[in-house]
Amino acid sequence: MTVSGAFERHPGGEVATYAGYLAGHRAVLAAKCAGLPPAQLAARSMPPSDLSLLGLVRHLGRVEHYWFEMVIDERLDQPRLDDDDPTGGFHRVEPTLDSVAQAFGRWQEQIEYADACLERLGEVDPGSPRRTRDGELVSVRDVLVHLVEEYARHNGHADLLREAIDGRAGS
Amino acid sequence: MESSELTTYREYLGHFRRTLEHQCEGLSPEQLASRSAAPSTLSLLGLVRHLALVEQIWFRRALQGLTDEPALFSDQADPDHEFNGFAGTAAEAAEAFDAWRDQIAKADTWLDTQDDITMADEVVYNSDGKRSSKRDILVHLIEEYARHCGHADLLRERIDGRTDL
């Protein structure tokens, strides 16, 4: 059974609500990876899908960097991480301790950046505009809800990848 | 740019309802019912039944206090009845999609009565009297749909190779 966990309430205003869900999903992904050696973290355990747990971790480090550092903090004058990889970092992993350390290290670094960014945001008007790399105008709210749903969808992938590796399911 | 809070939630919710619909398109009842990501017991038909129940629990029971309606696809003897209680017939698939679409239509009718001001209102969301904001419940619905759409991504890819990421 791989149904997501029980509802936990998130008190506070809008930004605090989104930050609470985001923290929950980061913890779910970490738990889905816990206790596995590099070979299993890098395994494509739901073929023909090319997804792996380690690929998800690497990808989500890239996602955190783009939305928090480049879009919300308006620092678009830098390349996206893994910009030169057509798979967005998903394939740029290997079943080695180095590859695991690199993906998790970068993810953790970006989470620390993001948490500081959320702290600074406080309860700013979530309707405040930001610009994406493609020039599209988006609200801070839109960015934060997008991050929650992108993590949630990838955690749906992580649920099935992990269950196929060792039978572990649940939130 | 969409700057309204409620409209943002409705757009994401609509996106994931359409995504699940799309992941089920063109499949036979047997394929919809197949546990294609074994050892997981999930199936696309199980997800449709589950999300009909999720829409009912949150929009009817929690947000509107309509707690007398019998819970969809539920059986006290099996807490995962939505995922287990079917054989894969055309009638079962039709029943699941009808119930899901009916709940979506009812949910949208309620959403039409809301606005950005009501998002901070609190409702009692379970039988223990726990309360949370409408905002919290709507963001929960988005992330629950998104996670199940992640399940649907892999279930569908393993049935016929189709991807929708």
Give a structural overview.
The complex is a heterodimer of chains A (171) and B (165). Helix content of chain A is 56%, strand content 4%. Chain A is mainly α and 171 residues long. Chain A has one domain: dinb family like domain (Four Helix Bundle (Hemerythrin (Met), subunit A), Up-down Bundle), CATH 1.20.120. A two-stranded antiparallel sheet of chain A has the order 1-2. The radius of gyration of chain A is 16 Å and the shape is globular. By secondary structure, chain B is mainly α. Chain B has one domain (5-160): Four Helix Bundle (Hemerythrin (Met), subunit A) (Up-down Bundle). Chain B has helices at residues 5-24, 29-33, 44-62, 81-84, 90-111, 134-160, and strands at 122-124, 131-133. Chain B has a two-stranded antiparallel sheet with strand order 1-2. In chain B, strand 1 (122-124) and strand 2 (131-133) form a beta hairpin. The interface between A and B is large, with 46 and 43 residues.
Compile the SSE list and pairings:
The complex is a heterodimer of chains A (171) and B (165).
Chain A: H1 14-33, H2 38-41, H3 53-72, H4 97-121, E1 129-131, E2 137-139, H5 140-166
Antiparallel strand pairs in A: 1-2
Helix pairs in contact in A: 1-5, 3-4, 3-5
Chain B: H1 5-24, H2 29-33, H3 44-62, H4 81-84, H5 90-111, E1 122-124, E2 131-133, H6 134-160
What is the structure about, briefly put?
The complex is a heterodimer of chains A (171) and B (165). Helices cover 56% and strands 4% of the residues of chain A. Chain A is mostly helical.
